[in-house]
Amino acid sequence: MNNVTVKDYSSKVKVFLSEAVRKQVAEAAELLKLQAQQEAPVKTGNLRDSINAIPSATGYKVEASASYTGEVEFGTPTKQANPFFTRAIEKIIRMSKGIFRKVT
User: Fold this and answer.
1) 8 Å CB contact between 85 and 73
2) Four-residue CA torsion sign, 56, 58, 60, 64
3) Closest Cα to residue 66, out of 46, 89, 84?
4) Average pLDDT over residues 33-54
5) Domain boundaries, the chain
6) Tens of pLDDT along 12-40?
7) Is 10's pLDDT higher than 90?
8) Contact 83, 72 (CB under 8 A)
9) Distance between CA atoms of 25 and 88, rounded to whole angstroms?
């Protein structure tokens, strides 16, 4: 009778998948950052240049650190909103759906 040895590679697979997911999240954050920079209105370039993808404990945070970001995105009582970040997110979502349609 032959002996069969079964090796448990689950921990290695888990590490591989975790690294692959981390890489994909980093790439998605960078893509969102670039799209938001394209959508940002430019007077001086400060708002556009303040947009960054920042690693966090759970993934990435894409943010614009200019002090007036909220006023531009959401508007004020005297200034119309220019939702550049929202447009960037919506474009990335549409692009993602197209990618998944091609794969499936």
Assistant:
1) yes
2) negative
3) 46
4) 96
5) 10-103
6) 666 666 777 888 888 889 999 999 999 99
7) no
8) no
9) 16
